[in-house]
Amino acid sequence: MKKRILVVGSLNMDMVIEMKSMPLIGETVLGDTLKYVPGGKGGNQAYAVGSLGGEASLLGCVGADAFGSRLVENIRACKVDVSAVDVDEEEPTGTAVIYVDEEGNNSIVVAPGANSSCNVELLQKKDELFQMNDFMLFQMEIPLEAVFYGIRKAKEYEKTVILNPAPAPEDIPDDIWERIDYLTPNETEVLKLCGEPGTSMEHIKKSAKRILAKGVKNVIVTLGDKGVFFVNNNEEHLFEARKVDAIDTTAAGDCFNGAFAVGLSKGMTVCEAIGFANVASSVAVQRKGAQSSIPKWEEVESVWKESFLTQTSGQMSMM
Ligand code: RIB
Fold first, then answer.
1. CA 293 / ligand 1 centre spacing (Å)
2. In the chain, pLDDT over 90 holds for what percent of residues?
3. I need a labelling partner for 90 at 20 to 30 A (CA). Which of 57, 181, 298, 302 fits?
4. At what angle do helices 41-51 and 66-76 cross, to 10 degrees?
5. What span, in angstroms and rounded, lies between the C-alpha atoms of 264 and 274?
6. To 10 degrees, the CA torsion angle through 308, 312, 314, 316?
7. In whole angstroms, what is the distance from residue 53 CA to residue 309 CA?
8. d(Cα 195, Cα 207) in Å, to the nearest integer?
């Protein structure tokens, strides 16, 4: 039976400006027209779960304003249960200012607003969601105490925890590491979490293994066009990225995480779920925006099956 996914995290209205190249400090550049796109790592991951055929509930918080209702409606439209998205009467909905350059790279600043009210108290009020769902998917754009509380609670109920450490915090409490079943940093985040000085693939692998030694069960590092590195105590694999023309990488990681959770919830093995998520995010980077870039299950399924067969017949590097 398909299992349920609880996504706990942020909702932001993204204010996106495309430009030729990012401004340097002190520089003014002219960009394209400002666009408003539904985003926020929690919202994006829940949207990805719904869009890719998973069953999800979203726990988060928006302000009592037009951005907040638009964000909630967008996620509801892809069949995610949004009844646990709270409305904060005091704070505005979270916003993110996103610059995208002509190479598709982005740079993001988030003003959390109502996301700050997705706190321990709110999670305590919604305790039944931790009991009725099977997989718990967290990121780090809400108060960190709430993330750590949620992880402890999830494990108390013997649920599977996926933590996407984005943005990467300065520190993670000792008892949290061993409660994480799947940690999904990108290459910058894995290095920050371990304080590794270099940025080569060797540094990335070393960092991932240092995280394993802290008690995390599986570390899955998303590496953009270099693919995905997966390691646990029994195996390690480097999955190649699909070769595509990326125009905007915003929310590619969110799409990966949502898709990965859907894969597990449908009974895929970890490697199958990574392969599926890899394909889903390769579709997302060919489209603009956050939730606007996330594909549907039908769009990913056929490419994934084809690419999985290719990978298992030799292209996936086994180390
Ligand atoms: O991961 C992309 C997201 O990061 C954007 O949608 C933005 O809102 C920030 O949360």
1. 12
2. 91
3. 57
4. 30
5. 9
6. 70
7. 21
8. 8
Nearest CA-CA partner of 211 in 166, 241, 167, 181: 181
Which residue has the CA at smallest separation from atom 9 of ligand 1?
40
Ligand 1 binding pocket, CB closer than 6 Å: 10, 12, 14, 39-41, 44, 96, 108, 110, 141, 250-251, 253-254, 290
Determine the straight-line distance between the first and last CA of the chain, rounded to whole angstroms.
Answer: 33
Take atom 8 of ligand 1 and give the residue whose Cα is closest: 40
Neighbours of 19 (CB within 10 A): 14
- As beta bridge partners, residue 230 has 220, 237
Q: Is 121 helix (H, G, I), strand (E, B) or coil?
A: helix
Q: What is the pTM of this model?
A: 0.95
**Among all chains, which residue has been given the structure tokens 């942020």?**
10
**pLDDT tens column, 143-167:** 999 999 999 999 999 999 999 999 9
Whether residue 121 has pLDDT greater than 50: yes
Q: Which residues are catalytic?
A: 254
Among 302, 304, 193, residue whose Cα is nearest residue 259: 304
Measured distance CA(280)–CA(282) in Å, rounded: 5
